[in-house]
Design brief:
Length: 335
């Protein structure tokens, strides 16, 4: 959490703490203070935002239970365990909390957050969570859910999250895309570094950004109905053919680097394409690339093509620049 502007610094009980008065409450930022506890820290009852990122806290201060005005709480990068969070369900005065960040702690399961009926942002990334069980207790008002870099093996207890706009489940052990069909407002889906073999978006068509980088895909098929899609990241898979993207007329970024693609195709009718990443594939020749790119010939600003057989031509960057009038970058070369 980052606060705009410099807060006034004052001494309280021997500890230095940054507080910023805002209309209706106080913002307290203790990031990086290396605190083991908060005994020497004043916690005003009007506290609205509390940032305790990068400390050494292993327990929750019982005074949290009285902070009825608190709507943002970050406990990122501490030493909290499942047991540490056990008091949360009884602290009903915190029910107005809208953002809870527990990223980078020592959790093995999702905490019980049922009292937070207005929760909008929930982050438990970089822990050791093995299951999404318990997520059914989370508020249906949730907008952003982050559970990346854990040990989750199944997408479950997601069906009630009708308002979710961002779902981050990257760097887990997922094999199947499932239980997404009720997320009709979902705009961003991040599933990189899993074990997914097949695309199954369960009818979602409001998506704007999708990442399935570093999975086990062999085909692009499955994105055809995502007509709002602007950014598609599919690098480091086993994809052999460019197909199923011709309907994505709003696509601006297409990342297919580090796959097994031999031919540039199916992007001829993408009028907004700006970034095309095809490096580390098996493309033998650039002959006909202008025609293959078609309607985006004038919109392309960036192409990555290095480490393909066609990139052995010393002048390939110059030739691409001649083909695409608004090109600004080929691989690492800026024009």
């Amino acid at each position: 959490m980052e606060e705009d502007g410099a807060g006034a610094v004052r001494m309280t009980g021997g500890k230095e703490q940054a507080q910023e008065e805002e209309e209706g409450g106080v913002v307290l930022d203790l990031t990086g203070s290396q605190l083991h506890d908060l005994q020497q820290v004043e916690l005003p009852l009007t506290l609205r935002e509390l940032d305790l990122t990068a400390n050494r806290l292993a327990t929750l201060d019982c005074r949290f239970a009285s902070l009825s005005s608190l709507y943002k709480l970050s406990l990122r990068q501490n030493l909290l365990s499942d047991e540490s969070l056990s008091p949360l369900p009884s602290w009903t005065s915190l029910s107005g909390l809208q953002e809870l960040v527990l990223r980078d702690n020592k959790l093995t399961k999702l905490p019980n957050v049922e009292i937070f009926t207005n929760l909008r942002v929930f982050d438990v990334s970089f822990n050791e969570v093995t299951s999404l069980k318990g997520l059914s207790n989370a508020s249906s008002n949730l907008r952003e859910l982050y559970v990346s870099k854990n040990e989750v093996v199944k997408m479950e207890e997601l069906e009630h999250l009708h308002s979710l706009e961002l779902l981050e489940l990257g760097s887990n052990k997922l094999r199947v895309m499932e239980n997404l069909h009720t997320m009709v407002k979902l705009k961003e889906l991040w599933l990189g570094r899993n074990r997914i073999r097949t695309v199954n978006l369960c009818g979602l068509n409001s998506l704007v950004k999708i990442s399935l980088q570093s999975n086990r895909l062999t085909s692009i098929l499955g994105f055809q109905d995502c007509v709002c899609l602007e950014e598609l990241y599919l690098s480091h898979n086993g994809i052999t053919k460019m197909e199923g993207v011709s309907t994505l007329l709003n696509l601006r970024i297409l990342d297919l680097s580090s796959n097994k693609i031999a031919c540039i195709e199916d992007i001829k009718r993408l009028p907004r394409l700006e970034d095309l990443w095809l490096n580390d594939n098996q493309i033998a020749s650039l002959e006909g690339i202008g025609n293959a790119v078609g309607e985006s010939q004038s919109t392309l600003t960036t192409i990555y093509i290095e480490r393909n057989p066609c990139a052995t031509d010393a002048d390939y960057a110059t030739k691409l620049k001649a083909l695409f009038p608004n090109l600004q970058q080929v691989d690492s070369v800026l024009f």
